[in-house]
Input
Amino acid sequence: LVGYWNFESVLTNGTVFDNSSYGNDGILYNHSTNKTVTGMRGSALSFYDSSANTSIVIPDSSSLDITGALTISVWIYPESTAALQQKGIVTKSSVTSDGYSMIFDGINCATNSISVKYGGSTKGNTCTGADVITLNEWNHVVYTSDATSNSYIYVNGVQKGTTAHDPFVQGVND
Output
């Protein structure tokens, strides 16, 4: 476990603590206020703000440069559709390098789907079908890759996407 952000302790200066042993703390970006809300368990952060590109920025750390099997697990509560747009959930990349990202997608896959990309545009993209995410409800989304040939996306415990891919090699320093 290289990162665990439960949002129980977000400081007024915007610091979001990583509860793993790696200390990958982040800072709220483009948040006018600390938007802590009731989550699935305890607290959550609301990123619903149509006027700003809100996010948590976590400084580069070698612990996040995944070179083997990868699992990303998140709870999301989308309040609006992802038709003809993409809403980032988790991203580890830069403009010029490979990386990985989980997106609430309405462009590359289908409306209200989940897309996970890795290795930039050259390696792989795993998609779910359309409308697998329920609006105005908590959805548990998990992506897992065995690092050699298969990736899977689960929504609320049910497999919704799979793809075969090249071996996962990650070395992003951004």
